[in-house]
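This entry is listed below:
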Amino acid sequence: MGEEKEEKFEGTTLGADAGRTIDSDVDALIQGALKELDTHKKDKPAEKALSATHLSPPSHSAPPPSSSSPAASPPSSPKPMPAPTPSPISPDDAAYSKNAPKDIQVGDIVEGVVLKVDLTGALVDIKSKSDALLRKDDFSGTIKVGDKIKVMVERLESKEGYVVVSQNRAEEHLKWDHAFEAYRRRSVLEAVVKSAVKGGLLIDCKGIRGFIPASQVDKAPETPLEEFVGKTIMVKIIQVDPRQGKIVMSHRQAAGEKEKIDTQKIFEELEIGQVKKGRVSSIKSFGAFVNIGGVEGLLHLSELSWKRVKHPSEVLKVGDEIEVLILGVDRKNRKVSLGYKELQDDPWEKAAQTYKPGQIVKVKILRFVKFGTFVELPGNLEGLVHISEISQNKFENIEEVIKIGDTVDAKILRVIPEEQKIGLSIKQVGIDREKAAVNKEMEGLPSENKITIGDMMAEKEREKAEEDEGDTGE
């Protein structure tokens, strides 16, 4: 009998390791152990077993028996033990992964690896005690074994013992997080306009549905909202309300922000000597402003053409698309100087080969100055006819002799390419022609009747002097 009791006592030690027992069973075991102690006071193993039967509180399991303790068999009519319940995950558990999420709770978003996919859904390893069940209705698109996905914990344990998760809810939650972060940082986002409705635009911003009031759309008053449908625009979130599922955005604010960002980037990349494409944005009396990707540069009047220009409108008009040369960049004051004529052939480089002193050319009268008149030569070059070289006759006003726009013959007196100067004479053309006419007349006269050119010129001077005296007398 003593041996049977000993076996019974040892059997209860194993039962304690298997799980927790109800209070009545614990009390019965303790009473049996005490009786066994009285019968076998000298039995040391029983004393050790008695010590083991002092169970820790119900929330903890008793330690497993030593491998050196004698093997025990259950009693002939053992009382059924309740099914074991899983104990909380402990970092000391050998099966616990160091990468396992701690204290997983409903609503947490965790990353996992897809282990299995079938018609009902997928199993996902989320580094927890048990795998996660992702039902087919809780994810969109396609997933395959080995994919890393983010899921939201919906239930800690299903009937099958799995953690129940949802990829759709995780994505929705992350979208709202992204919206809050963009709102906090006042970030500029890209959005696609889905439709135009009364009062504004409905847009999609990487899965985030939003609304842009008409007052926040950057457009001309006459432009209809329907023109934006299907286009990608820049927006900024100005209101987030997850309870009502509402996100309000602004196109107007984003347009200004994007322009500032782009302008700053382009300005930092500008270097002297670069050739850039731009658009003439405005014309002033002193030059033209050219927009280079959002940066406004000044094209000074003197840089428009190799010939003198009175007003920029003579060369350019608003809206012209042109190429310009970067002449200067003032990063401190944010100013850019541009050149236009430098990208055109410099006619002065070949001026010395094209024009020679004594050559007669046709010129166009451009403008009058106190000391003469500027004329345009073929090849977009300008020359000066000094007031003393305009006419052989006396005059009070240049317009008495020539007018702006007239085309006349002029004789080249000098060419100075390095100073971009060409001196001409209109008067000398007349003198040369008169000499040629006199020579032609003299060719048909007998030798005894010939007179010198000097005589003829003196006679002409005498006639002019008489005419002048007559005018003065009147």
User: Anything to note?
Assistant: The radius of gyration is 52 Å.
